[in-house]
Amino acid sequence: MLLALPLLTAATKPELVPDVSAREVEIRYSFTGAQLLLFGAVLYPGGRVPNRPADVVVVLRGPDQPILIREKSKVAGIWMNTDQSRFRSAPSFYSVASSRPLRDLVDDRTASIYELGLKNLQLSPGGGALPGHERHFEAGLLELRRGQGLYAENPRGIEVTNGVLYRAAIAIPSSVPVGTYTAETFLIDHGRVLAAATRDVKIGKSGFERYVALVARRHAFVYGIAAILLSLGLGWAAAAAFRRRG
């Protein structure tokens, strides 16, 4: 009976069956962005949907990467870099959608544990700076990436049907970084995370773009020389065209 107890306990909890519309997103020269559909179902014990179904939150998160943020200010009438802060680890992409606003679903502690919402991201500043300085640059990083379409929040971005089926559309901008992304789904009820599930999504370059990216990574010196020669060639061609017009 003791061995069967975990199975009986699991059987009394709802489960998530998530999926994504595409496990791989290819970036070509004509890529202008895409929409990724995160959908699935909530399986309740015995198939009985409660009178008040649980809420759903989905998060699409890109690989973490270090980043250096610089702040510009006017000095003697000239814009210059006057301050900077380095983050050891920040998501390259982060988008969260929920069936209701996150503040109505979980408390600050739970949101911080699961990193639900932009203000709860663990950005890992480089250290050594005063807390006020770090918060200033964290706010700047969030604002910058929201403007680029790389960070987003949609407090009513999940459509739940009959308390069982759910779907959310996540916008993928044209400037999205490549890598392996994690699509996380959380089932939340009365401030508690009842279930969680993940799926991986690969975003990568294909065709000529993939070839150029591989050459730049594997043969950096050759790629640099080729880029310089190409720039010189284009400059010479532009100068020749202007001379002919003159």
Pattern of helices and strands: HEEEEEEEHHEEEEEHH
CATH superfamily of the largest domain: Macroglobulin (MG2) domain
Subunit arrangement of the protein: single chain
CATH architecture of the largest domain: Sandwich
CATH topology of the largest domain: Immunoglobulin-like
Helix content: 25-40%
How many H/I helical runs?
5
What percent strand? Answer: 35-45%
What's the average pLDDT?
A: 83
Number of domains: 2
Let me know the largest β-sheet: 6 strands, mixed
Uncertain stretches: none
What would the principal axes of the Cα set say about the shape?
Answer: globular
What is the straight-line distance between the termini? 94 Å
The tally of strands reads 12
Order of strands across the biggest sheet? Answer: 2-12-11-4-7-8
Helix vs. strand class? alpha+beta
What is the level 1 CATH name of the largest domain?
A: Mainly Beta
Tell me the radius of gyration. 24 Å
Quick description:
With 246 residues, the protein is α+β, with helices and mostly antiparallel strands.
Main features:
246 residues, alpha+beta, Immunoglobulin-like, 2 domains, 6-stranded mixed sheet, 4-stranded antiparallel sheet
Characterise this structure.
This protein has 246 residues and is α+β, with helices and mostly antiparallel strands. It has 2 domains: 13-205, Immunoglobulin-like (Sandwich); 207-246. It is 28% helix and 40% strand. It has helices at residues 5-11, 108-114, 131-147, 208-218, 220-245; strands at 15-20, 24-27, 34-43, 55-61, 64-75, 78-91, 94-98, 151-154, 158-161, 165-172, 179-189, 192-205. It has a 6-stranded mixed β-sheet with strand order 2-12-11-4-7-8. Helix 4 (208-218) packs across helix 5. The mean pLDDT is 83.
